[in-house]
Amino acid sequence: MRVLFMGTSEFANPALKLLINQNFDIIGVVTQPDRPSGRGKKLNPPPIKKTAIENNLHVLQPEKARKPEFISKLVKLAPDVIIVAAFGQILPQTVLDIPPCGVINIHPSLLPKYRGAAPIQWALINGEVETGVSIMLLDVGEDTGDIICREKISIQLEDTSETLDQKLANIGARLLVDVLQNLKNGHPPPASPQQHEQATHAPRLSKEIGQINWNESAETIHNLIRGTAGWPGAYTYFNNGTLLKIIRSLPHKEKCVEIDNIVQQPPGTIDITSEKNMFVKTGNGVIQLIRVQPATKKIMVANDFVNGYQLKTGDCFSNS
Length: 320
Description:
By secondary structure, the chain is an alpha/beta fold. The protein is 24% helix and 25% strand.
């Protein structure tokens, strides 16, 4: 079976690596063009490209997958099936019609919930207690195709978008191989229509999403911090406008013993315990900040931040 793989981000890597390890006939890997990143704006390849090159696979990097010249290349490759995992572009019907066994997508949510570009992040931000992976047949809509199979997992309190991404990527890779091993030549796998009336949307995150509103509950703020981990990151301000990213936190519904003296203070008020642990009052409960990153500095444990910036009980984070 001739397999064409389309993916870009790290989420797609476990699937490609497992296909390689299982000796599938991978005729090519399609990924996004190299993009500038970092302070020097040096061109960097997508994670999938690195894996493909390391395994001597043919790589295609179209700027737009709907251009006729690219589609002609796919026709000549004559794949039996196309696999898509976090590729980053919606494919036109002319691409979907190429492989006789269909275009199979790995999507990190329990479809029809969280269709879109950021399903893992929004599941965490919204405080979901479970999520999963859906293996689906792509159509021209945004994650609206028929479902081949799904697998559900619980979301743990310590999960972030980065750790959950890896968990779901590994599950997706395993499910994909099971589907491919049961494919009959020339026929797409059996699949069931989604219940479209139950659909929810997970749009791409913006930088503004990460700004913390201390009037929210401790749990809501904690969910924002772990849902925006990596990018854009959850952030607040201190010392009259200095930006501080919050990397890791822990919510507490009940107030800690040592913060009795700030219970009448506004949300955002800081309490430093005798052990130099940092708690912040919220609109409901308190949140412990465990790892933070001041602007232009490296990530540090909260204790070092407290000592280095001489924070004290009664100081207050602001919303701008």
